[in-house]
Specification:
Helix content of chain A: 25-40%
Number of domains of chain A: 1
Structural class of chain A: alpha/beta
Oligomer: homohexamer
Distance between the termini of chain A: 52 Å
Number of strands of chain A: 4
CATH class of chain A: Alpha Beta
Number of helices of chain A: 9
Strand order of the largest sheet of chain A: 2-1-3-4
Mean pLDDT of chain A: 97
Order of helices and strands of chain A: HEHEHEHEHHHHH
Largest interface: A-B, 54 and 54 residues
CATH topology of chain A: Rossmann fold
Radius of gyration of chain A: 20 Å
CATH architecture of chain A: 3-Layer(aba) Sandwich
Shape of chain A: globular
Chain lengths: 264, 264, 264, 264, 264, 264
């Protein structure tokens, strides 16, 4: 159920019986000369809607702006700073629990959001409010990605290109795929820029002139569809798994024995 | 230019020459049995995109969740609390100025956001960062609204119904228009529930059993189109006016004379 | 009972039996060439004391500085910014509940405080701490105001002039009433400065050279007394009404049925 | 000049030529069975007005509620918590600088405010905004106090009793002076309750059943007048001293030599 | 038990049976030409470890940086600002309670931390979380200090010099004791720099050219040992006293009678 | 130069000529039955001191408590929550810049601190205050670690065991190495517990009964020494590299061309 399209009375059954919500999150940031700035939230929204269409779970509208200061040198990158992002997602999530939600999947398509969503998840869990878990689509299908792409790259590469080809094909500037690769950094491994073990790079522009990492010339709509379906399968499986857990099983483990004060 | 659909190199000209951005904001909250929960942001996004298509200004993706605690008793209402909302919009706006933006129009379709956007606007203006102004679509065309509707109501009424009929017709449950009216509060004036001058009502549910105010049976797609076009005209005019202002003219007036310390 | 004048043992009965407190709030800001900067808190304090003298409720000392950045260009305007004001009033209010207070009337005489007091009221109510309600004196007697003044104006006009004539006559510079009107903006309606539906004005000085709105030459002490008595009557009635409410009736309505999770 | 009684045009000369403001601060808290809860702010306001009447400096209205959680067990004690108090005073002070104020005297009559006002003073000074200094009336005339009172006590004792006898005599319940002493703690020295060097007492009630410390039976209006005049003299001298300082002399000393980076 | 040296299983008994923790706190700040910048935390740690070695209580590692902006003009002084310091200590303390700790002694050797630790102590106590108390070593043995030193001084003087001679002798530059005294302010009393009762001095450098107060030429390792042992005795006694208190005896007193609402 | 052991005049040359500071950070948290809770900060401090002894750079005392909520179920784990940790380190770092420091290396030995130190580094860099970089010792010598250990594990494993054997041998409970391995999780790879791509594990206890990961029976003091020396070499090289950079080279890249507003 896509919440923005539902009316409130139509949620009667859901509120009475269900406790899971899906929140898509992405970013609005440069994705090279060939991909639109909304790439991440477009992917997240499409996956979240596809999976919840199959499971019947509630899906909120997307959080369209995320933690993207590392792309800010490129025109149009829009972002909120980490403390603001965390508080926004936390607050939104806490308020969802008013309707009986006690577990949330953050369907995320922006790497810069990951650690912050994990932190929010801990906040919600440690005080017993809800179990929230971050899910990054490409981490659910690593083998498939390796199978299709020689140089996947972490940003603006063939993974995202193929996905947008599938979910919003007219937003891909297909004539610029070669330029995207050649003006960027086709080969890239995290850590290769480290200095004696320290990550001294903060911004994408330090590593790539056009903001692109990877070689997107391998991307096709068909591959995009395959990735999309595979990731959706994974997300559906996650939602079903999470739905099946008793809430207590999702809460933190207790303190190890002996319990504090037990001997007093 | 709809930012999420643009690539960063395509913004070259804009960044070099322009200084105005449009940010649509709405809410995800109950809108009665006949309208979808996303009503407000769907309207805001549609208006913002239509106007910026005409003027060529930059339009960000919408902020889809707003300040809606007063609708929370109804299933699915999602909200962030005011301090979080203000900090989120402020931070997003400040970061936009990195790209040379110094004036922003908040295209708003949710009454609960108004005072908070005004407060954010003051923060940005008083320290000279940017001039940001809240624009609420229905306040730009009061006469037209009065002409078409006998009982417009402030929430879930014929104004919003007609607008959604125009921008997302399949999301209106047209068979429930009578029920929406009869189960809600067709006649409503702010202040009528006040007790000796004090507004003692905090939540919509205190005034309306189904969350609806106004009589939406007057709404038609044709009226919606007329409202939409008229409001878009107003917004276009506002964008053009704002674009024409020198930045200094948008900043606060100086202290009155004599200037502080001028005699020392 | 005016708290700053009471000793603690004399509050024995009150603490044991009562649960209502009155907090007067105003501002210290320009009120034109004819009225003192403390106008708002002087009015609020006078009304709060008069009403609580009649009902026997507890009245705290006034909050003398409020949210007045929109008057800051004029000498002497003193203010706190909205987040600080809200936190101050909220914290003060929460601490009052330590003594058994569970309902508060903010007797307010400054328009700039209204939305912030409403926000604080929601915070206190939504977590079940207390029911706090903002009461703005002139909104309790709109007909009487219309009856006496042709051009009442929102700030520094005949309403406030007449009130100060009644409560602190020697603080009105009566010889400047004409100048106050002529150097200011005798006729004013909210919205008249809007640009295509957007309120683009942030500060009083943009609309009025001397900070005055309305025509105060209609003000007299006798009219002031009449307004004062009428507003006091309204406030007394509000206090009695609020005192009569069971606390549960003041708390938020529950979630609509079905209750969240009720079907699980 | 008492700001709440002044009109803005009458501050022309002051704003042009002067840079000092006086802010009275106190509390609303129990002061035993014989003194009113507003004792502290009534004293602070009276001293601040008397001194500024003599020097011609600007005096704001009082901050009537301070940091008094240590008196909260007694009926009516009203307080704000330290972070809120500090932020309120800091914000109010920063905003005063808009009018050219760069030095502030906090005329304080509540011990619980002292460390917080010092902290605010540092904030304002360390970033070069203003030089603000806390002044506690009884610390300016220690010899005179010792001369008049055998057991002065830190709270509700003869110092405050005499002062209120002078500034608001009808608010002293003179028939309860013996009871105030006998039901409280006539003899008291800070530190006497310490446990092996640790101050383990947090609240006044732990030391005094009625909240009183000292023996107020020595207080008379004549003594009160003498204290008041002497303290006013001290405050006048402080204002004159402060007024005479060049602003640079009030700012922090620079880093010691060699200056950071001077050798690079 | 020195927590950083213990393994978790070795704390079994402690967690089951005990509820007291000791947290040493100091600073890293100039202590004149003869003492190391870590003086305060080295003293605090040594005392805390010595006392807990005797009582068997748990001792955390030291907080090595404190509130020292007043020494910042001297090379190397490192500090955190008061709000950050308070939040850090409060948070650390709250988290300790997860292991059953409900009473904490802050073993402190830096005067600049005192009021902040008291504020944190109140926060923890007023909401019933824990009873935390600040203990400053030299305030536990005032007579002994007076016996040994003619001019003890508050900072960098003979007290600290003797202590460091005892706990880390090679860190004292003994050849500079005369210079330390002569380049600083051997005689000093709080208040002597006050102007008409106002403390107008914010930084140590305003009073002492080399940051030293007092005459350290009386310091010897033997005196240091005596101070150290005496202070340790006091701390041991405090820990034993605190350990013996029932938790309820450490919580705030209730509101005085009549209880709020008791008559309703 | 180890700051806590230095006197301020001895820093004259450093302050005049140098701009780099080293801040060691670790944690106080369970490290299995064989290692002390202070393991991380003991390692960080030892490495930081060894490297700065060689380079002559300034080293502050360690931050001994870090972000360790994921180990809290085990006795004695002490932690601060992420927002508090970040603000503490940021504030401490900003204040260091008062002495001319414009580059900082966070010598870190706790994985839970990494993302937070990166976030702090960005805050400091993006506003031009300083360039701060996180350095995690084991990430500087991955090959050496692989060479020595078959099952290195991320926490409490042979890496940390060998290091503590080298820097504080008596704190290793060598008789418990087998038990540490067998009661924990000798084999562990990040991601192996993921559910359909989502990391659903928040706390160490969910993966390891005794909090240990890896097989520490390969650890010896000799290996520890080798790791320590190798990591120190890396750190020395990093400090030298960083010291050599012009400050401008460490600041963020500018916005890509065309510059915002360049065409206006």
């Amino acid at each position: 159920m896509y919440l923005p399209h539902e009316t409130w009375p139509d949620l009667d059954e859901y509120v009475a019986n269900e406790s899971l919500a899906v929140v898509p999150l992405g970013s609005t940031e440069q994705h090279g000369p060939h991909l639109p700035e909304g790439t991440d939230y477009l992917i997240a929204r499409a996956l979240a809607r596809a999976a919840t269409d199959r499971t019947g779970h509630l899906c909120t509208p997307p959080v369209t702006v995320g933690v993207s200061p590392h792309h800010r040198q490129f025109h149009g990158t829009t972002w909120v700073d980490p403390p603001v992002f965390r508080d926004y997602v936390e607050n939104l999530s806490r308020n969802l629990t008013y309707h009986g939600i006690d577990r949330i999947v953050y369907v995320n398509a922006h790497g810069g959001n990951v650690v912050h969503l994990r932190e929010v998840g801990r906040r919600l869990r440690d005080d017993g409010t809800a179990f929230a878990v971050e899910w990054m689509w490409d981490e659910s299908i690593p083998d498939l990605i390796d199978e299709h792409f020689e140089r996947p790259g972490p940003h603006g590469g063939p993974k995202e290109t193929a996905m947008i080809m599938h979910v919003a094909r007219d937003l891909v500037r297909e004539g610029r795929l070669d330029a995207a690769r050649d003006g960027g950094r086709p080969e890239f491994e995290y850590g290769e820029m480290d200095v004696h073990g320290a990550r001294v790079v903060y911004d994408a522009i330090e590593n790539s002139d056009n903001g692109v990492f990877g070689d997107q010339t391998d991307a096709t709509p068909a591959v995009g569809e395959r990735l999309f379906e595979a990731a959706t399968d994974q997300l559906v499986a996650l939602l079903e798994w999470l739905d099946d857990q008793p809430f207590d099983a999702l809460l933190p483990e207790p303190h190890v024995d002996p319990q504090p004060g037990s001997g007093r």
